Amino acid sequence: MADGLKHHILSSPRHGGYSSARQEQYGQYLRKLHADFLETWNEKSPDNSKLSDFLKQTVLGTGAFGVVILTKHIDTGKYYAMKMLEKEKIVKLKQIEHSYYEKKILCGLNFPFCVYMKYFFKDNVYLYYILPFVPGGEMFSHLRKLGKFDEMSSRFYGAQVILALEYLHACELVYRDLKPENILIDRAGYIKLTDFGFCKLIRGRTWTLCGTPEYLAPEIILSKGYGMSVDWWSLGILLFEMSAGYPPFYASDPMRIYEKVVSGKYRIPSHFSMELKDLIGRVVQIDTTRRFGNLKNGVLDLKNHKWFRDIDWDSLLNYRIPAPFQPKIRSPGDTTYFENFDDEKIKESPVCLYEEEFADF
């Protein structure tokens, strides 16, 4: 009886909370953003730049399909992150469809806590996604450096992730790759979700097994068919990892991780507050009919949870809350917060490779 009462107290909103009326008003704003997104989605956006418009500076990161390079737009002097995806690698790894959707999604995104496509073009060898340069680097680097975040920082970042996921879901997009490596910190200390390679427009369910093992929801692993619920599960994993310094389910072998995820058993660190324990228990919840974010009240259950009682959601959206950490950026192209990578050898070809496969891009 006492436990039941405790749960009720922890999950009930503070006096006032984020009301249904405010949520309905915010929902109207999201519906407008959804309409804008669909308008972009349904039109073919042509190449709007070319490689000679940019000066390559330094490598920011490397991945399975190519490299991300800091680049400077010659005409405007602005810095961007240029994601160069090698067509041959995309074809070999059977990722043409994912790359196509990532391009379409990035072109349509318009939200403070998500990156977006500024320019797009392709040449004989590569696809080029030109994105804003986010100078604070990956959350992952800051988390590893500090070991773990205090709960105030986890709350600040977690609340922005909730708003970003709420926006994506309003646009009928499931993200499927939430993790500290895919969260960038901007110059104000706020977040930007990046890497939309696994993001997908869905109306109903999807069955694809994709994502990062430690962050996969059980319904993905069990091939049950799933929807937006998987992103709320991964929010719980992120809140845990930010506050503990490690995820709740981990092992050296991915199959062992999957077993642990499906069992749903994990140990909560003793330093977690009662409110954080309660919140994680409600999102890292195997039963999707009981998982916060996925219930009748939707995102309101999260916004009104006691752990978030100090968050002014409207002020957060408008960058009016001071960030717990603000990167010291000395110049517009400062890469202090990124690892040093060797220069990548850029490939060339006299003929256009895989022209047919990438005709729709």
From TrEMBL:
Occurrences of domain Protein kinase (ranges): 54-308
GO molecular function list: ATP binding; cAMP-dependent protein kinase activity
SMART domains assigned: S_TK_X (SM00133), S_TKc (SM00220)
Binding site for ATP: K83
Residue ranges of domain AGC-kinase C-terminal in the record: 309-361
The protein's Enzyme Commission number: 2.7.11.11
Entry's Gene Ontology BP terms: imaginal disc-derived wing morphogenesis
UniProt KW keywords: ATP-binding, Kinase, Nucleotide-binding, Serine/threonine-protein kinase, Transferase
Family designation: Belongs to the protein kinase superfamily.
Official protein name in the record: cAMP-dependent protein kinase
Organism annotation: Pararge aegeria aegeria
Native organism taxonomy: Eukaryota, Metazoa, Ecdysozoa, Arthropoda, Hexapoda
Gene, per the UniProt record: jg9033
